[in-house]
Amino acid sequence: MSRVLYPGSFDPITKGHMNIIEQASDLFDEVLVAVLCNPNKMQGMFSIDERVAIIEKLYENIQNVRVISASGAAVDVAIAYECGAIVRGLRSLSDYDYEVGMQQINKEISNGSVNTVCLFADKEYQFVSSSMVKEVFSLGKDISRYVAPDVRKQMILKRR
């Protein structure tokens, strides 16, 4: 069985993230979406548990997508869950430069057991990021192009 890890903070999960998950679910037997706590980022809009619940709801009918929460290095989570690769979404050249370095470190840490697979989001999502969505949302603008309806609903509820 080919199992891959798709790690991220997903605060909130965007249509770009979803596009990568859907591509990965077509390529691999199982996609493990890992909601990670990033200690370098400020307190998020949603708690880790809320993010997990939102993503589980989005993928409740997709058999090969599973959602977990974890902390620590993504490569350690990949090893613990016996994932052969980490999936990363690329939007720009700066994403590529960052991911090249990370894949080399992850390969070394895992003694060569964890590869990195980079996927490109479809063109309409390549500029979308969680931070951009939160900023647009904070300005009172429509975010329906960038997040699923359930995510938008949860963001509105959270704002109240």
Explain what the structure shows:
With 160 residues, the chain is an alpha/beta fold. It has a single domain (3-159), classed as 3-Layer(aba) Sandwich (Rossmann fold), CATH 3.40.50.620. Helix content is 42%, strand content 19%. The chain has helices spanning 15-27, 48-58, 74-80, 93-109, 130-138, 149-159; strands at residues 3-8, 30-36, 65-70, 85-90, 115-120. Strands 3-2-1-4-5 form a five-stranded parallel β-sheet, sandwiched between helices. The termini are far apart.
Secondary structure topology:
Blueprint (H helix, E strand, L loop, with lengths): L2 E6 L6 H13 L2 E7 L11 H11 L6 E6 L3 H7 L4 E6 L2 H17 L5 E6 L9 H9 L10 H11 L1
Parallel strand pairs: 1-2, 1-4, 2-3, 4-5
CATH topology: Rossmann fold
Rounded to the nearest angstrom, the distance between the terminal CA atoms is 44 Å
Range of helix content? 40-55%
CATH architecture assignment name: 3-Layer(aba) Sandwich
What percent of residues are in strands?
A: 15-25%
